[in-house]
Amino acid sequence: MNPDLDLTMARVIRAPRASVWSAWTDPSRFEKWWVPSPALCRVDRLDVRPGGAFVTRLSEDGVEFVPHLDACFLVVDDLERIVFTNVIDSAWRPANPAPVPMTAEITMRDHPDGTDYRIIVRHGDPAARDLHEKIGFADGWGSVTEQLAGVAESQGAP
């Protein structure tokens, strides 16, 4: 963790790690939490393996879905860690994503109350980190993490 380049978030999700993992890897569960409500998410591709595609769409009105994320998974350690980046798209081509190029690492560990869920979002330079913070990293990632917790906690173990 480099505070000049990285943003972080952590929370305990009151659900078994397997349920949190399933909410990340099952497209029908993933769509329920990935974008801040009331926007809707559609998963085009969710191939959760190293090199797998991670493509989503977003709708503000529930009718028109526009591109949201075109990324690639870098590391997938079952039930423990997911790393993805938007600087390589789902076709493994270099990308210039807007608004912020980033690599996100999600870790999950057992906790006495459920799952210790941690996020580190890495940026290439301080300007990108500061922009991400300014445009709402805490609100955006915080709200979807809350939604993830709701999905995992309401559905329990898969």
What does this protein structure show overall?
Residues 14-152 form the Activator of Hsp90 ATPase homologue 1/2-like C-terminal domain. Belongs to the AHA1 family. With 158 residues, this protein is of the alpha+beta class. The chain has four helices and seven strands; from the N terminus they run E-H-H-E-E-E-E-E-E-H-H. The chain has helices spanning 17-25, 27-30, 126-134, 137-155; strands at residues 6-13, 40-46, 53-59, 66-77, 81-85, 103-111, 114-122. Strands 1-7-6-5-4-3-2 form a seven-stranded antiparallel beta sheet. Helix 1 (17-25) crosses helix 4 (137-155). The chain starts with 5 loop residues before the first strand and ends with a helix. The mean pLDDT is 96.
Lay out the secondary structure.
Layout: E1 6-13, H1 17-25, H2 27-30, E2 40-46, E3 53-59, E4 66-77, E5 81-85, E6 103-111, E7 114-122, H3 126-134, H4 137-155
Antiparallel strand pairs: 1-7, 2-3, 3-4, 4-5, 5-6, 6-7
Number of helical elements: 4
**What coarse outline follows from CA principal-axis ratios?**
globular
> Tally of extended strands?
7
Report the span from N to C terminus: 32 Å
Summarize the biggest pleated sheet.
7 strands, antiparallel
Element-by-element helix/strand order: EHHEEEEEEHH
Biggest sheet, spatial arrangement of strands: 1-7-6-5-4-3-2
**Coarse structural class:** alpha+beta
Q: Indicate the proportion of strand residues.
A: 35-45%
Contiguous uncertain segments of 5+ residues? none
Helical content class: 25-40%
State Rg. 15 Å
Overall residue-averaged pLDDT value:
96
